[in-house]
Amino acid sequence: MDIGIVDLSRLQFAMTVMYHFLFVPLTLGLSIIVAIMETVYVMTNRPIWRQMTKFWGTLFGINFVLGVATGITMEFQFGMNWSYYSHYVGDIFGAPLAIEGLMAFFMEATFVGLMFFGWDKLSPVKHMVVTWLVALGSNFSALWILIANGWMQNPVGAAFNPLTMRMEMTSFFDVVFNPVAQAKFVHTVSAGYVTAAVFVMGVSSWYMLKGRHFELARRSIAVAAAFGLASALSVVVLGDESGYETTHNQKMKLAAMEAMWNTEPAPASFTLFGIPDQQARETKYAVHIPWAMGLIGTRSLTGQIEGINQLVKGSEERIKRGIIAYDDLLKIREAKGDVSPEVKAQFNENVGDLGYAYLLMRYVDDPRNATPAQIQQAANDTVPTVWPIFWSFRIMVALGFSFIAVMAYFFFVSNWRGMQYPRWALRAAVWIIPTPWIAAELGWFTAEFGRQPWTVDGVLPTALSVSHLSVGDLLVTLAGFIALYTVLFIIEMGLMIKFIKKGPYQDVELTQDWQQRHEDRLSGRSSPVTMPAE
């Protein structure tokens, strides 16, 4: 396979996925925040909360539409650019995606119209239920997609069939309750909640700085601070769980994240800062925190975290066992399964390493003819480029802890300082609006780039997964995607900025009348009741 085709296919898919994920976190979090606001409205019957629900719901709707459009394009790429991957593991990978469409996307599509156009046709309680169903649908959608992605990171509940040359599902339960997928789901969803909280807080702070929509802004900040603080704490805790699962299932990724070239005596230290040098296999100017990585990665004082050099040697042994499995596979296929029990037993013993033999196909057509140098070269290919993973992970973690500090401060001011936010804090809240997206994209980069050279970890190399396309085809479609997504991004930003500047334009008179009566009651005055116009 032409490596240029592989790299271009990866670039195209990475571009579409990372662009799509600009919309996903805000959709996940804003759907829950809107549902919370409407719940408060139903409980209190205060028009200000209805106005808040409609305003933030409008921004949710804009983001939701663009997310759906870009997500559909992304899923088509599995058939267009990754046809052999789809053939090889489609029986397993396709099942969660199909359920996502049937269960989650249909739920969202069914109720999102009622959410936006059913205010005057449904009772407040029924409309609130609809809003919660839209929020649950959005989160269920993320669940099934992350189950599919989690299987790529930790392929459980499946077995290779030598006669069909495909992976087949053996346990749907194991696929669904894959610990990597579950940890990834809760971590990703919590990150989306933080994104929405920072967005709501930043926009509301901008209103307060401009002296506009004060009542909506301060209540929105209070909701976002409480919701965001809980979510930010969850991100850190659940990120620790993801790291623990990586220790057991993706050791090379963890070693690359830490730039840990050699196995350290337990418990391993955490590298706070350093400059990884992949050619020299060392980390220059490293600053370590003793014991930290061992405690995080193994939750013990005795568990070891293997280094990159030791893992490469292990990969060499797995490649050799994979060659044995490959030889037995050809015998089984040639005899159409009618081989001796010894061959079957030997194949079953080594089939778990068959994917490592496929790594050799980058250098030789038949892995059985590989030289020791080629085996060494393929083993070295199991090491991803370390420095971008190392730094992406650290920037993501630093941003995660900064969100806790920001949310804790605004939560404190909201509850114990009468929502009297200093102007410097409001300005800071506006400036940090992009940072949750940066953290989310860096997290996905760490997870996906760190899995290389595998599409399905230990099972199918990326170089074998692509479709038979030409470089010209990929360049043309890549340029087309970039142009289309640039237009969509401009439309998205234009609509969001337009409606943010416009502010809450629905239920304005009703909300103002209620607010005036409320202030009069607090001051002991009375004012006439103004009914909203029909």
Key phrases:
534 residues; mainly alpha; two-stranded antiparallel sheet; 6 strands; 71% helix; globular; Cyt-d_ubiquinol_oxidase_su_1; heme; transmembrane helix
Give a written overview of the molecule:
This is Cytochrome ubiquinol oxidase subunit I. With 534 residues, the chain is mainly alpha-helical. The protein has 19 helices and 6 strands. Helix 1 (3-20) packs parallel to helix 18 (471-502) and helix 5 packs across helix 7. Residues 526-534 have low confidence and may be disordered. The longest helix is centred in the middle third of the chain and has 36 residues, at 214-249.
Total beta strands: 6
Average pLDDT level:
88
User: Sheet with the most strands?
Assistant: 2 strands, antiparallel
Report, as a whole number of angstroms, the end-to-end distance: 68 Å
Shape: globular
Which regions contain 5 or more consecutive residues with pLDDT less than 50?
526-534
Count helical runs. Answer: 19
Content-based structural category: mainly alpha
Q: What strand order characterises the main sheet?
A: 1-2
Helix content: over 70%
How much of the sequence lies in strands comes to: 5-15%
Rg to the nearest angstrom? 27 Å
- Tell me the series of helices and strands, N- to C-terminal: HHHHHEEHHHHEEHHHHHHHHEEHH
